């Protein structure tokens, strides 16, 4: 698990390998990840959007950005957490992801960029 705190918001990420399958005559490697967003600040915050940079071992890069996470824009009170799971496909058995969430402090409308730490995605059979 990797963790990082930005402006009192703690991001923790756990990953797992889901398997391989063929798509468009190419092998794909599926990975899942679980993100815990914990509000350790004294303010109520809302997650509005996300930005991900996904890299694989073949130097392919994918940028994913959009509103909320898995169709939600969670409001997180002090001491509370929001947990969600998602996934991605790579064309190699290992890679990495990192990014950030755009959040807003609901008491003063201040925008906050909360960083998601870089984490590795690796199929168990690809490791020595």
UniProtKB/TrEMBL annotation:
PROSITE patterns: APAG (PS51087). This is Co2+/Mg2+ efflux protein ApaG. The lineage of its organism: Bacteria, Pseudomonadati, Bacteroidota, Flavobacteriia, Flavobacteriales. NCBIfam families: PRK05461.1. PANTHER family: OS05G0170800 PROTEIN. It comes from Winogradskyella immobilis. SUPFAM superfamilies: ApaG-like. InterPro entries: ApaG-like, ApaG_domain, ApaG_sf. It holds the Pfam family DUF525. Residues 3-128 form the ApaG domain.
